[in-house]
Design a protein that fits this description.
Elements: H1 2-13, H2 18-47, H3 51-75, H4 77-81, H5 84-103, E1 112-115, E2 124-127, H6 129-135
Antiparallel strand pairs: 1-2
Length: about 140
């Protein structure tokens, strides 16, 4: 992401072609949007236990990043191609997010159990799979 952003920005903003400069600015806006979408995915999924919203977020993130690759590919071909591994990762992460939600009936909040305090007095949570097997 960083290398792609650097290449697209330095190539595009210094261009004498006004269309290339405009594409560069549009790409910078998309880059900021994808950073925000990326930032909110983790709290949605892990902290708030909202797999539906997290999956919608990561699908939007993948779409924005795909469009960003297209836009920056017009500014600098290497910058566009440099986003391909990230798009591959987002595809896999989307699959995982949707799969975890689907396999848990889109409700992760009820899966955690309180664990007894440790010797240090800290409490933590874990998924008690044995309790789920007993329920079956």
């Amino acid at each position: 992401m960083g290398y792609s952003a650097y290449r697209a920005w330095t190539t595009g903003i210094n261009s004498f072609n006004p269309q290339t400069v405009e594409l560069t600015k549009q790409g910078a806006t998309l880059y900021t949007i994808q950073l925000a979408l990326n930032l909110i995915w983790m709290p949605l999924f892990f902290k708030l236990k909202r797999p539906i919203e997290a999956t919608v977020d990561i699908i939007a993130l993948t779409g924005v990043t795909g469009y960003l690759a297209y836009i920056w590919g017009q500014v600098d071909e290497v910058a566009g191609w440099a986003l391909v591994p990230y798009l591959g990762w987002l595809g896999f992460a989307t699959y995982l997010s949707a799969s975890v939600g689907y396999l848990n009936n889109w409700d992760l909040a009820e899966k955690e159990r309180d664990m007894p305090p440790t010797k240090k007095g800290k409490t933590t949570k874990y998924v008690d799979e044995k309790a789920e097997e007993k329920d079956l």
